[in-house]
Amino acid sequence: MNSTDDTEYRYPIRPCTLVYVVLMALTVTTWLLGKTDMTGLNIALPVLAFALFKGLLIGDYYMGLKGVRGLWRWVIIIWLAVPGSMITWAFINAS
Amino acid sequence: MDAPGLKALAVKNNYPPGDLAIWIFILAELLVFAAFFAAYAFTRAHHVELFNTYQRTLDTNAAMINTLALITSSYFVMRAVAAIREDRVKLCVRWTVAAILMGVLFIAIKSGEYAHHYANGVNLRTNTFYMFYLSLTFFHYMHVLMGMIILGAVAIKANNGSYSAREHTGVETGASYWHMVDIVWLVLFPLVYIMR
To answer: For residue B12, is it within any domain?
Structure first.
């Protein structure tokens, strides 16, 4: 592999590595929020939003769905939205 | 060449990476998990105190480490796909094996959690929270085991020279399944361990 190929190979990996760092940071943030032992929607809903965003990143960048046209592009997004909405609804009505 | 998600940025495709059949399977699995999550959340709405009380008995440290392990494994699998697209077979095998090792870590930690609960007499009949906790997490646990078997098969086939830059559908198929297992856990972790 020459240097040009190496650059072409390495460049796209960088955004996926950045996504990895974001995923790890959001996970640790979620865990720290859990450690506060606080309850209520002010904690629960942001934590859920972090989880849905993390799922979106995995779908787009690691599964490669960002570059897919049509219905398949939306599979993970729709899946995240449906249980996400139901969980939100259930937590709002429980509080 | 590039990472799976980013190659797609340049050239749009009509179908997701890997065999289409695995995506039908992934859809079915996601529907089941969505139903599980909804059932948990709506049941919790009627037993908030019970769920909040017993949720505090769970080991969030172990769950956090397991989440990091699965995210790391997904990153490794993405690197494996990127490597095979470069025709770097040995590198693909190494990344895949590294992902499997993260899966082993997940299984070891989760098994430890189950052993702890079992030692304390917790089972499916203990209460509604534990019924959901044990069934949801064990259902996911079985998916992790299945994913490790699939990745193991991918690693063996890659090592035998069955995959190349031209033909690597099997690697993408295994990767797609593994990422699905990861996404499910990313929702399960806060829902069962953190959200109160």
So the answer is: no
Q: Is residue B112 part of a domain?
A: yes
pLDDT band at A2 (very low <50, low <70, confident <90, very high): very low
How many independent structural domains does chain B possess?
1
pLDDT one-digit tens code per residue, B155-184: 999 999 999 999 999 999 999 999 999 999
Residue A8 confidence (pLDDT) above 60: no
Interface test with B, best of A4, A24, A63, A68 (most B CBs within 10 A): A63
CATH number at residue B78: 1.20.120.80
Q: Taking CB atoms and an 8 Å limit, are A90 and B45 in contact across chains?
A: yes
Long-range contact pairs involving A56-60 (C-beta distance under 8 Å, separation at least 24): A56/A80, A57/A19, A57/A22, A57/A23, A58/A23, A58/B74, A58/B179, A58/B182, A58/B183, A58/B186, A59/B179, A59/B183, A60/B5
Whether chain B has a CB inside 8 Å of the CB on A57: the answer is no
**Is B8 within the bounds of a domain?**
no
Q: Name the residue range of residue B37's domain.
A: 17-194
> So what's the pLDDT on residue B4?
54
ipTM: 0.91
Which pLDDT tens digit goes with each residue over B49-92?
Answer: 999 999 999 999 999 999 999 999 999 999 999 999 999 999 99
